[in-house]
Amino acid sequence: xxxxxxxxxxxxxxxxxxxxxxxxxxxxxxxxxxxxxxxxxxxxxxxxxxxxxxxxxxxxxxxxxxxxxxxxxxxxxxxxxxxxxxxxxxxxxxxxxxxxxxxxxxxxxxxxxxxxxxxxxxxxxxxxxxxxxxxxxxxxxxxxxxxxxxxxxxxxxxxxxxxxxxxxxxxxxxxxxxxxxxxxxxxxxxxxxxxxxxxxxxxxxxxxxxxxxxxxxxxxxxxxxxxxxxxxxxxxxxxxxxxxxxxxxxxxxxxxxxxxxxxxxxxxxxxxxxxxxxxxxxxxxxxxxxxxxxxxxxxxxxxx
Length: 304
Description:
Elements: H1 4-16, H2 27-48, E1 57-64, E2 70-71, E3 77-86, E4 92-96, E5 111-115, E6 119-122, E7 132-140, E8 147-154, E9 157-160, E10 181-186, E11 194-202, E12 207-210, E13 221-225, H3 236-248, H4 252-276
Antiparallel strand pairs: 1-7, 2-6, 3-4, 3-7, 5-6, 8-9, 8-13, 9-12, 10-11, 10-13, 11-12
Helix pairs in contact: 1-2, 1-3, 2-3, 3-4
């Protein structure tokens, strides 16, 4: 499998047809269209995700300090879900929730979200006396994509090198890539690519921290930040980017063809979200059991 960006560029050029159709269209512009299309499809998939979906779930470490009340949200954060303090085994030992401005209460939470730029503030009902590490749970936005060579690849981390000018854009902000998926291609033995979720990103060293360790470690490899759809559904992004180009150049026949392809791919993408991302399968495909039909009061269990 080739990197997504290379497959995307080739697919868009195929949709456009002859080389002359690429006039005034540089690779940099193609990559900009790629990020726009990826973000647009991401928003569409969010609308069809089931309520139990963790489609855009991410985590980041926040250090709460004594007499500090205002904190920045991690980059790419769009909705804060709450904070958890965990022990060394990962068990949750305390929680902080956001307070609502709509229930008339000022005692319903310890965290107040101000905005994506201003961050959140901690109310004095919870006042740490020393540094405490908390895990911020949130929903993220779509990520900017790139691919590059791996400088170091061991256990639960990966150190990447900066991408070339035509291989996407590296965002050097701590925790920007949290919740996104890295795909690593092992150049030594040609095995199937590995994919892992990013749980932390250190911009200074370009280090990706991962939720699970790699199956193996190779001396020669390259990685990519994956788009919002898995392979091969990610080909939808090329159709999404090519369609407005064809319309703007009055290539109606090609535009109708790509529009039909896009519609079919979008239906497949929606099905993928509904079937593979939710915490549980849709109720319509599971026969109800006794626990789903528990009667009220003291009566016996009912079965179907």
